[in-house]
Amino acid sequence: MLLRFIWIEKYNIPTEDAVVFLGGRDNTLLGGFLIAYLEKNQPKALDALNRFSASSDARGEQKVLASCLYGRLHPFVPPHEDKDLKPPGAMSIRQAVMAKLKTRDKVK
Description:
This protein is mainly alpha-helical. Helices cover 63% and strands 0% of the residues. The relative contact order is 0.09.
């Protein structure tokens, strides 16, 4: 199934042909998710992803692929900007060492 999906993506097979190539609409949980993804149906894909992830026959690499594909349909957008937790004037160790070396070279 995954090799067929790779071919579908690589050769831009039309959605209806891809559904047939994957085995039709009555498919496995993974196949159902892949069909929903190809149809760009985000709610159906989410439902299929949840059912697939909860199933006992889902392998790890398949879950990762399904999650990544779902991320293409529904990209994660953080709700707000994260605050910078560094205090004002903080510098990295590298910056501190470089500053110390510059002051040492000026003294000579």
